[in-house]
Amino acid sequence: MKFRKATIEDVPKIVQMLADDKLGKLREDYQEPLPQKYYTAFQNIDKDYNQELIVVENEANEIIGTLQLSFIPYLTYQGGVRAQIEAVRIRSDQRGKGLGTVFFEWAINRARERGAHLLQLTTDKKRPDAVRFYENLGFVASHEGMKLHF
């Protein structure tokens, strides 16, 4: 497998994976042609040094997964950097093969390379299997997350 930074040409495949699950179907607008808002979002992510939108390719150079790492510099922890992982998806025909663990091992190592002192994530409470997966990787539910949707 090869992990690489996403390009604008990858955006349709990424959005297709984001939309290809129970919750993603409710919040994404995957169609052909892809709405411009996704390309605009990609351009904003791509020009931000603290954002890494990654795709994962198999040996045939097919995109089989994606994830986004955000690096958040802040004053606490003596000017530390916190990494956040979001939008982890594995193509539906590749699920159940242990790729999630490989993706997270890569992300953990990348966060360390960038000097982060922790890697955090959020997961929807409607995904109990995901919670167990993250706990098996060593993630701890140490805080109660809250959101305000607009």
Tell me about this structure.
The chain is α+β, with helices and mostly antiparallel strands and 150 residues long. The chain has a single domain, classed as 3-Layer(aba) Sandwich (Aminopeptidase). 35% of the residues lie in helices and 23% in strands. The protein has six helices and five strands, in the order βαααββαβαβα. The protein has a five-stranded mixed beta sheet, sandwiched between helices. Strand 4 (81-90), helix 5 and strand 5 form a beta-alpha-beta unit. The longest helix is centred in the last third of the chain and has 15 residues, at 99-113. The radius of gyration is 16 Å and the shape is globular.
Order of strands, main sheet, comes to: 1-2-3-4-5
CATH topology: Aminopeptidase
Helix percentage range: 25-40%
Instruction: State the major sheet.
Output: 5 strands, mixed
The CATH top-level class label:
Alpha Beta
Order of helix and strand elements from N to C terminus: EHHHEEHEHEH
Low-pLDDT ranges: none
Distance between the termini: 38 Å
